[in-house]
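Anyone up for a design puzzle?
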């Protein structure tokens, strides 16, 4: 150790290093106090370390296919934010009328398209660093990002005060990732089901399984009932055929 540096200064420098958001402390319960945005769901806020979606870090939401159930989960937060929401490579153009009815200002929603993986990573990093971006939602559809590329995205999020979320296929749950928060999202006929399988400052064995209620309006939509394994389109078609046969028999009588 250089003679001109005191042990106290060294300890202060190490503590400052450990307090940085992208430093992972393994299975330690230690975590720094971090700015968050409320999820809009008390049950989910309670399960998260600092009581909401963490800012200035990378969040991963793993889910099946491109059913866009993420909008049900994130609408309360999007409505509460005042800055810009940027959508990077969304799987489909959001239904504007539904966003307006939900109280979201479309003038503060921007869509960015990136045609290849290099452009996707570069766009994510640049958008994550933009101070005007309160929320970055990015979909990893066909690009299989390496751990190094994910870490590059994480480091970019540390330079902003917004919320940055990367959506990945549920098969990537078993892949290593530097993201501070990782969860699996699934929508059934009656609930939003979340599985928090990685959270900075919490032991990996401490898995939270959370059920959030669907809005009453969504429960009435037939399409969402298909997301429940107990009420699949195949079962619906079988029930329809049975009803048709019963109707024909009654007609013959």
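Challenge accepted. My sequence:
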């Amino acid at each position: 150790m250089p003679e001109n540096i005191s042990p106290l200064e060294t300890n202060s420098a190490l503590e400052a290093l450990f307090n940085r958001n992208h430093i992972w402390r393994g299975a330690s319960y230690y975590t720094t106090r971090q700015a968050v945005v409320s999820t809009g769901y008390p049950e989910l806020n309670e399960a998260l370390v600092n009581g909401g979606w963490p800012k200035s870090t990378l969040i991963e939401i793993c889910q099946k296919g491109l059913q866009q159930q993420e909008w049900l989960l994130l609408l309360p937060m999007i409505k509460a934010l005042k800055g810009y929401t940027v959508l990077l490579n969304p799987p489909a153009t959001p239904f504007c009328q539904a966003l307006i009815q939900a109280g979201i200002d479309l003038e503060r929603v921007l869509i960015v398209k990136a045609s290849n993986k290099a452009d996707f990573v570069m766009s994510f990093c640049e958008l994550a660093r933009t101070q005007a971006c309160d929320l970055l939602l990015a979909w990893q559809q066909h690009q299989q990002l390496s751990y190094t590329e994910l870490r590059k995205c994480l480091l970019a999020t540390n330079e902003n005060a917004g919320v940055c979320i990367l959506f990945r296929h549920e098969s990537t749950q078993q892949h290593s990732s530097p993201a501070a928060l990782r969860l699996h999202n699934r929508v059934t006929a009656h609930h939003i089901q979340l599985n928090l399988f990685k959270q900075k400052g919490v032991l990996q064995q401490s898995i939270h399984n959370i059920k959030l209620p669907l809005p009453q309006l969504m429960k009435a939509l037939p399409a969402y009932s298909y997301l429940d394994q107990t009420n699949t389109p195949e079962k619906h078609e079988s029930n329809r055929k049975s009803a048709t046969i019963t109707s024909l028999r009654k007609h013959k009588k």
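A detail worth pointing out: Strands lie at 36-37, 53-54, 58-63, 84-88, 109-112, 133-139, 163-169, 181-187, 191-199, 208-213.
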